[in-house]
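Re: folding output
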Amino acid sequence: MSSRSPRSTEPGASGPQDGPAAAGRLFHVESLGCAKNQVDSERMIAALEAAGWRLSAPEQAQVLIVNTCGFISSAKKESIETSLELKQRNPGKKVIMVGCLTERYGQALAGELPEIDAIMGNRDPSRIVELVDSGDDARAGAAPAPRLGPVAAEAPAREYERVHLLSFPGSAYVKVAEGCANRCTYCAIPLIRGDLASRAVADVARECRGLLERGVRELILIAQDLGSYGKDLGAPALGSLLGELGRIPGDFWVRLLYIHPDHFPAEILDLVAADPRFLPYFDLPFQHASPRILRAMGRRSDPGGNVGLVTRIRHRLPGAVIRTTFLLGFPGETDEDFEHLLAFQEEARPDWMGCFTYSREEDTAAYSMKGRVPVATARARKAELERRQGAITARALDSMVGRTLDVLVEERIQGEDMSLGRAYLQAPDVDGLVVVRRALEPGARVAVRIDRRNGVDLEGAVRE
């Protein structure tokens, strides 16, 4: 059940309903990729609605927008295929490609995809209004497509209140920084989203207050690296931000995603311990555990230090949940390197794990590295890592049976007296769910006594 996706941009409970008056200037957004892309999609929706357009289903829309992902080869392929399929199904409508893929390859795409009517990057999502309003007629076959180039890094992006949230009811992503100052040799993110550009603590806190006033129950703080947040403004600021959010009254959750282990701010452990609203959930992308491969990746940490970080977190916060990510098949990875990774997995025992195989990305330092690992070998190592992780995750989930957990309800199961939700140990999209044996209102938080595990999901009944 944990593979569902909430990112429908059709009007619904998270925003105002469109009525007959909205007919005539309608658009639809297909949001691909990560949560940071989702926030950009929400900002585009807000900008267009402020300009008099209205969000709709693709069947009714005159303009179809694809917010693309360009992180790895499979994401690039999905972005192009989604855009072309939309145009094929809707030949008389304007199809616009925006986002990460077009930021990086905009000029090439404009020449190679004449079916696409317009192209824009990702530096200022509010500029979508310029493209949508640049003529009422879709110009299928025009080449090259009109393109808005990157906005200068210092140019302030216009902010709009995000009326439509693409998350499940009750939660919202809050992007606290753009870009990345790390230079991992395999990663194209700095090429796509630029250098680190943090928002001011007061600005983020103001947005969070507004979301809470609208009924959001879970604030999910995201950046390419939360540990680096604020460094470009003078000093790391994640602790300061949590301190500011801790002064907001109310019963809500704050979840932290994506903290580079090299930059983990130790002071946040005391903040999380002191305020139960700050969830003890830590997403730490270790990526590997071979010292040689870590150095080749441009990462400064070592396996012993990373195990020590996990140990310190669990000692200070006994209920802490650790999620990590590993990359398999990096150039030069040997069987011995893989054994280092397996040993680390067994010692650190992350509660959740995601892994992916190396994708060779142009203009990254790793692109020209020798010792390319055969795809079949990388996939076999990935499968073995996932097999072993299954038992680790199962044991962690089994420890939750018999406990009562607060659960944020996300949706009802149609035709069943059941609902789906998440507890503190489960981030959206990537972790398991809690199956609650009662039909409940999405967005509500309820206490659920867990009585069984079903795969990567937990199951229980509302505590009376």
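--- second protein (sequence, then structure) ---
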Amino acid sequence: MRREDSFPIVASNYQPIVPATPAFRPDGTLYSPQFDDVYASAAGTLAETRHVFLQGNGLPGRWVNRARFTIVETGFGAGLNFLATWLAWREAAPGHARLHFVSVEKHPFARADLKNIHARFPELGAMSTDLLARYPLLLPGFHRLHLEQGRVTLSLLFGEAEAMLNQLDAFADAFYLDGFAPARNPQMWSEGVLAELARLAAPGATVATYTVAGAVRQGLANAGFAVEKRDGFAGKREMLAGRFAGETTTVEPRTDKRAIVIGAGLAGSTCAQRLAERGWVVEIIERHAAPAQGASGNPAGLVRPIFSLDWNTHSRFTSAAFLYALRHHAALVHAGGTLIQGTGGVLQLARDDNHFGKLQRIIGQFGLPPELVQLMDAPQAMELADAPIAGPGCWFPKAAWLKPESICRANLDAASAGTRCLFQSDAAALRRTGREWEILDASGAVLASAPVAILANAYFAAKFSQAAGLALRPVRGQVSLLPERDHMNLRIAVCREGYITPARDGVHCLGASFNEGMLEEGARVEDHAANLWRLERMLPGFGAGVAPESLDGRVAFRAMSTDRLPVLGELPSEPGLFACLALGSRGMTWGALAAEIVASRIDGDPMPVERDLLTAVDAGRFGKRVRREA
């Protein structure tokens, strides 16, 4: 069984997204032909947002002295409520504060349609441009976008409202209920939806909506909200506003924002960057003299999605991680980072005719957009790669090869204001003292201490007794460096059982072996031979005449869990000790989202992926209680 097919199968009720169709009434009001209803009042869209949703929730006054504020909206529509809220946040919120805006939408607009709609609101121009630059592909599930240097975070939940809200892990301070009228779209106002809002309510949570329909008033009351009628906007006489009066669950925010990260590879550097952007002070403990010296030190790796016919856990997590990684890398470049990466996408070749048929069915069944993936017959693939190709496959236009070290350094540069790196410092043991974790060297001296510590040092984390139950195992990977030859060109990265990148600095990166349980550190000729064999199955004749023993290479050890999913989150029975581990051979793709999950959990933010995915990757899933080190 191939590695990518051996992940646990968790079937998902995947429903392709049907975009909204924009239409305008004669007076210029945005209108939905599907629901026969308007998106906002003809008397003024932004003014209605300010009256109903901002003032109805006591905003912006409630933002004073708040370090973080979370809004959950039903009905993203054209994003105008979000943009108006963001504008008010810019003007009124404290400079250090952070806004989380979570919005669910079954029928989102396409990016081009949003651009045309937003053009009618010139006061939102700059913010609209920033939003559209990050606006996701229309795929079901969660999509997290960071704006305003991380000060504003938008999480878009594409799908049925009740299903999406059920998957949300967050504490909401305010609710915007802005679905189409209950008579037009009753599913947005169902008992199930309102019960989910009650589950998400933080202490003091407020709610506001434009409708005063009796069924809505009763449904909110049944869910635990105490609402009242208030003056409506413009020609509408009344609206509803109120507070959640039921029991709530909350987590006390961390006031001591100091953390230690063990490891300065992809996982560790990204965790440091995601925390630093949230205002944390981070110390990185790294046993080598520089970042990215383990598996993150390979010359190149691929960032690409993985799909399956049953849209299983692995496919869902990898697809979400791929899209988040693209946005993360773009943000690093925008912040001044330099990423060494290729262009032109990645070409994945089918293993055989049956596999190509499977790829065809996946793309058709899930309605995957051409911006994400396109089928390629053999001649098309050959033209795309400018090299001999073994057969047909699919092309991921947004995928890329990158040098992992450049990502690590860009992460550290972006986090530099709040991060200190302790290189050539080997963390030998962990010790809990009071409310802090102490990192000890081999002599027992304390290297660093903080209330939060993150294990991001791959399989080396297994040496800590606190991590004994995480079921980590090392996987040896060897890449081969194939010298560039004048008569052998390659325009883009190609993968099948292995991968090859275009030449950089005179060599192609070719890999990689996958040796479970093997700890041999030196390069092996037989692994070079296996890499050349995989190359021949991708690009016939491309490696002709190359002797395995003539190749240079690099060996690194990745960490993998027994179920081959990442290990993320707080360790059982170890408060303040977190894992960002087991990224395996997907570290380039998984790393950014994995770090965002860990950082969100540490800081108490809304989580960036669905609750069932969080359960699937949670560090406590192995059912073993780890031992506390004496």
